[in-house]
Amino acid sequence: MRISFVTLGCKVNQYETQAMEKLLHTRGHQTTEPGQIADAVVINTCAVTGESARKSRQAIRRAKRVNPGALIVVSGCFSQADASTVKELGADFVGGAGERQQIVEFIDAIAQNRESSELHQVEPEVSEADNSPLLDPVLLVPEAARRREFEVLPAGEIDGHVRALLKVQDGCINFCSYCIIPYLRGPSRSLPVEEAVGSVEDLASQGFKEIVITGIEISSYGLDIGSGLGELIERLCNAAPDVRFRLGSLEPTLIDEEFVRRLRPLKNLCPHFHLSLQSGSASVLRRMRRKYTPVDYAKSVALLRSAFKDPAITTDLIVGFPGETDAEFEETVSFIKSIGFAAIHVFPYSKREGTRAATMEGHLPKKIKDERAAAIKELADDMRQVYFDLQVGGVRRVLFETELDGISEGHTENYLPVMVKASGLRDNLIEVEITGHCNGRLIGRIVAQKDTHAD
After folding, report:
1. Which terminus in the chain has less CB density within 10 A, N or C?
2. pLDDT for the residue 111
3. Span 392-446: which CATH code?
């Protein structure tokens, strides 16, 4: 069966999509690019914001329009949140924010039934306007709060085999006032340490040079199994010393003396830490139900900078949260200036029904939110230029990923894009002297031979 995958949202969704793809490949199915003719379309949806939900609905409609005779399979957070709408849009299978194995079984069973009955030789007469499913819809959307087991899926590649993802955690128990995810993903569940080590050893044997450790909220890793993220990262880095490891988004509350003590000696851990901030105003953070203050955040950053040489500190920021005053916004501006981030992902607040924030007073006009986002983006661009300036004259280990017209590009250990005038470097870790930067990329020259070691 020819299967097309459409993925919306976060790296966890990317991971879960590639896992389904890998499982289906082992059963003899083929993958087609999104938009091409397919026998089945799997849409892995997102619902973190109202806009994400809209895009998820749009993707389902597009799949029906482009492939009117295809099996439509929908999974992810949007279908967990609103299975009835997904069913009404014409899905044949509606899964929630889990059930990936069941999706694979469903598609494989349909393919075998079609093959055995030779139904593939009969083209169903379905008009492009017909939104009805091909089968009686299958709904498999368990209540998220009842999820207790971590769904183990095969780890695998992103970015064309150079970099791999390993999901070690799912769910969230933070219940921030703006976020719907805990209600859709359920409580925190963790991949056992030994299974994670086994996956890393397998990925290393396949030749991956970098592994990204991801999850919905990896700072909560191990709460359900009596472990912790620091212990896990220590075990993984030691299990594959020739692979470099990069961490997904972290909560500032995770960064303490013990965590830093464990991570400091790990030479193959990338000094790139994405610490979720959301606001630099203490009062806004309280309304968001975040569990730290700006002072706490600054202490976490100071710990990381004392333990790692020139780490990249990046973050997420929400502007225009309900009730955010001009003074509170200025507090955020002053705070991010004091930190000096390598990159900031800024988002205007987006109302998400079902969250506490949706019912708060003081929702701001779109114009104000957009203006504040633009101001932060301009400030973030300035800070990134400063961080780029600091790299010039230094030597970085670069994992090369692409090549075009004699120009090779990759990323440093602190996740800055680098370009060099050279060929044949893809899938290699190579030392590069940084000589300048232009248009959002560092420019460098090779100072060492090809080397697959990460330390």
Report:
1. C
2. 86
3. 2.40.50
Q: Rounded CA gap, 426 and 430, in Å?
A: 10
Residue 158, pLDDT score: 59
- H, E, C per residue of 144-155: HHHCCCCCCCCC
Return the SS3 of 167.
strand
Position 134 scores a pLDDT of 64
Contact of 99 with 140, CB cutoff 8 Å: yes
292 with 253: CB under 8 angstroms?
yes
Coil/strand/helix, residue 351 = coil
DSSP state string for 69-126:
TSEEEEEEHHHHH-HHHHHHTT-SEEE-SS-HHHHHHHHHHHHHHHHHHTGGGS----
Q: How many CB atoms lie within 10 A of CB 405?
A: 6
216 within 8 A of 251, measured Cβ to Cβ: no
Per-residue model confidence as pLDDT tens digits over 63-103: 999 888 899 999 999 999 999 999 999 999 999 998 899 99
Q: In degrees to the nearest 10, what's the CA dihedral of 275, 185, 104, 211? A: 20
Q: Which positions of the chain have pLDDT values less than 70?
A: 115-135, 157-161, 448-455
Q: Which helix (H) or strand (E) holds 255?
A: none
What's the maximum distance between 2 C-alpha atoms anywhere in the chain?
69
> In this predicted structure, what is the pLDDT of residue 448?
61
25-28 long-range contacts (CB < 8 A, ≥24 apart) are 27/104, 27/108
Neighbours of 453 (CB within 10 A): 13
Q: Where are the beta strands (DSSP E) in 259-394?
A: 272-274, 312-319, 343-348
322, 365 Cβ separation under 8 angstroms: no
Q: What is the pTM of this model?
A: 0.89
Backbone angles phi, psi at 26, to 5 degrees: -65, -20
> What tens digit of pLDDT does each residue of 210-234 get?
999 999 999 999 999 999 999 999 9
Question: The domain at 144-270 falls in which architecture?
Answer: 2-Layer Sandwich (3.30)
Strand partners, 443: 419, 436
The CATH homologous superfamily to which domain 2-142 belongs is Methylthiotransferase, N-terminal domain (3.40.50.12160)
Q: Is 149 exposed, middle or buried (0-12, 13-18, 19+ CB in 10 A)?
A: exposed
Three-class SS state of 375: helix
Q: Beta strand 441-446 with 312-319: parallel, antiparallel or unpaired?
A: unpaired
β partners of residue 399: 411, 429
Q: What local confidence, expressed as pLDDT, does residue 36 receive?
A: 81
Residue 172: the pLDDT is: 95
Query: Which pLDDT belongs to residue 449?
Result: 56
